[in-house]
Fold each of these.
Amino acid sequence: MSNAQNVMQLESLLPYLSASRRKFANDLIGFWRRERKLTRGRADWVGILIAEAKVYQYREGQLPANHPIPEVPETMRAFEEQKALNAKRTAEATVDLGVDLTGLQKLFAGARANGKTNPKIKMALANGTVLEVYAAKSDSKNPGSIYVNVGPEYTGKVTPDGKFIPYADRRLDDEALSMICEVVENPTQAGRLYGRKLKWCIFCGTQLDTNESQYYGYGPICAEKWGLEWGNSVERKAEDRQATLEGVVDDVFDKMLATAPRFPNANQVHTPSDQLDLDLPSGSDGD
Ligand SMILES: [Zn+2]
């Protein structure tokens, strides 16, 4: 068959090609229309794509009963073998970590529902290695999965159904796993604990710069997006005032001890000048 006939046939078979193959076929057809000629390589590809489309047609039962079984082209065989191999590897690699990480998926889903487009948690192991847990982008290869990085290394992913699939032969560190579990179990508590320790908000990675966010371990925006506790600052201020008062009282006693007149002679008569002259710090009576 001539190139012209082959190109026409390929055009009629476009619906039987996958999206990426169809794009490739359209490029070849476009080239033919512009140039009215095909290089040997392009002509071969037109033939290969026709053969691939015929196999799809055959599998879909769309070829006449007496049509000879089309031969599966090498390109298609290689592609299908790779696909089967990937599926097998994924099935084999799925490990049971003994914990249910669907809670992590729920936590991320909640953040997303509150307008956090790409939820991410950033913590650090005891030795300072950064631990990052972040949602795969919706247009990525694994939409719905959550990736886990330990340091610069991609360790694996949590699937939408809460299973962990390590990357290649990597394993998720026990410390990292238990930290992830802490966040899942009680995000408010973990956010506070790690935020205060690391001096950054684990839900957005920014430095904690206000007194309030340093107290909570995260800021009001993250509190809202991740559904964390916020706003019991009245209680907190009472707590802080109590601490301040205790500090003032301690100072006063220190001063008293330092300036208290000694009484070397028990028989000495007390006079008004012996009275303690306390120099109270101004404003010490509370605000
Ligand atoms: Zn934050």
Note: Residues 270-277, 283-287 have pLDDT under 50 and may be disordered.
Amino acid sequence: MSNTGSDSTADSKQAPKASGKFKWQQGDPLPLEINMKWCKACNICIALCPKQVFEPDRDGKPVQARPEDCTLCTICWVHCPDLAITSSYK
Ligand code: SF4
Ligand code: SF4
């Protein structure tokens, strides 16, 4: 029996740990967390993302416009000079 009734875990939408191929789906938390206070709009993440997940907002900061295309390849966050990108999936 898998239904344990009212197991009161408030954040049932917590990001699952990625195992194998990551596939973001509608309703999941966004793949990345971007600290906009630390981001200086250098454009590196936008330029390096092989999947074109980002679009710049009007300040040039990254917006996850196509989260369904993110593979959690890590390129954006390992190259962000301000450590502004993290992911709770990894
Ligand atoms: S690489 Fe980092 S600092 Fe540069 S635009 Fe992306 S999040 Fe902002
Ligand atoms: S983890 Fe990879 S695919 Fe996802 S947004 Fe960053 S660079 Fe793009």
Note: The helical segments are 44-48, 75-79.
